[in-house]
Amino acid sequence: MQKRYSQEAKEAIVRRMLPPNPVTISELCKDTGVAKSTIYKWKNDYSNKGISVPSDKSKSVNWSAENKLAVVIETAALNAVELNEYCRHKGLYPDQVAQWKQSALLGYQHSDNSKKEQNRHRQEDKHKIKSLESELRRKDKALAETAALLVLSKKFEAIWGVNEED
Length: 166
Hints:
Layout: H1 7-15, H2 25-32, H3 36-48, H4 65-75, H5 80-90, H6 94-160
Helix pairs in contact: 4-6
């Protein structure tokens, strides 16, 4: 038989995984009697909703990129006082959030620059392909002309019987 947990109970258990004093999933299982797989599912559900739940209880610097980005998104509209309160609740420093935001922006800038570089390489490749195709067509025509001349010279020799000694 499967137990049903209220939304408040789920939130309370997931909240215990959050900083400043996060509890490991193993400890939560012992304390609450909820199966590990269920707690992992709840944690993933909250992460998918954009609520940052760290995967590593020790330090916020070990959080995944997704969790850091979730914090940046959650704090984007907060003023300084609200940001400080949020950081105290999560066990973070405002400087960390600012650094994570800067890292995310640099990632987007790098992405834009790499797209421009890819487009430039693509244009160069198209130009090179076009020139190689043109050269291939020219060489195909020259080869066809040479083959035609060879066939004509053989026909000429067959008709007139010209020997190399003549």
